[in-house]
Specification:
Number of domains: 3
Helix content: 40-55%
Low-confidence stretches: 1-12, 24-50, 389-402, 449-455
Largest sheet: 6 strands, antiparallel
Structural class: alpha+beta
Mean pLDDT: 76
Strand content: 5-15%
Number of helices: 18
Amino acid sequence: MGDDGTDSGATRGTVRRTGRLAMLPLGAAGRSVAGWGRRAFGADADALALEVLTRNAEEVFAVLGGLKGGAMKLGQTLAVFETMIPAEVAAPYREALTRLQTTAEPMPTATVHRVLAEQLGRGWHDRFADFDDEPRGVASLGQVHRGTWADGREVAVKVQYPGAAAALHSDLAVLRRFAWLLARLLPGLDARALITEIADRTAEELDYRREADHQRAHAAALAGDPEVRVPAVVASAPQVLVSEWLDGVPLSHWTTHPASDDADQAERDRVAGALVELLFSCPTRVGLLHADPHPGNVLVLRDGRVGLIDFGAVAPLPDGVPPVLGRLLRQLADDDPGVTAAAREAGFLTGDTGDEDVAAWIGGMADPLRDETFRFTEAWMRRQGRRVVPPGGAAHRGTGRSLDLPAQWMSLLRVVGGWMNVLSRLDVTVPARGCAETWVAGFADPVSDSPAAHR
């Protein structure tokens, strides 16, 4: 500890982290200058651009993957959107993206015990029949241990890193200045808005009591569902959360292992259908939407049910999905020519924007809703990226500036986009339209009911 009572190791770590983050734009700028020089001497411009993009991406994910706090959280978020990265540059760092989602350096055992004593009391050992000091999972803000509660229940014990809040604020302050570099990696995303949303969302994740409340709400609302299980909360504190342990295979395993045969594919389709039904229904059944679209947060349990975990990031939707969004999605899905007028009438558009531009930005949300079933593939997801950022061209930035959705609804669209990326990496076929008709208010309304549809 330092003389002022602070953890001097954590302070030194923050300085090192800031330094490593600060080197990102310098490396990217150096490669851009070098590429300019080589172009001046006749090197192929497209090949050079591809080389610079690939090296930038490799460096971004290598550095983010070695950090915790906001930097690693951002890296995990970008990894979800991997299918939107151009196919020709995705392969070199796909392995790095997968590693980023699943690995990080664990806390020393003594530190874990100290946090448990601070959060659960000095006699924390007495609350467990057994506690495994070896972590079962390591994430951006904390790590998970397996144990046995005093009453015999197998439990997952989530322990937050000491100094996580300071690391988070430091990382995000630096990353905000480097949004331009992220925009180069994924031009179709609003990098500044993404970092701001991550900052707001991750700050809320620091309070495990809040996460416990979200988890209890889901467990209560979904109790008795034959296809879903949410683990019960056993105990909670600001930096420790104890939940029932769920045995299962995470979807992240399926994203890296193709289906072995038709029966395996049918099982994946069934699980994906249950997940889509869950995501569509939660705003109505719970008033919340799971806002961390990560394949590691969904487990396929031994009995075939879908296990949903990690409720630190949720989007509040106390009245469910707004009906006006449901009606707009139905118009897009049915190719209604009045969709742009309807969006403008609802106050979601400004400026001179046409149907084609609207479809470029949010039409991908409606594609899975056009027919009774839809197959999510990486090829389809990359086409959605090209709708926003055409090959060799600029993004439809005019439409992006013209969209004027409330912040919480933009968050909803980004979360849905993230889950569509996860489904695309799974390569599954699901009955998404039926789920929308059942659970999304306004979607089942006849298109003719919309005044703008008659214009």
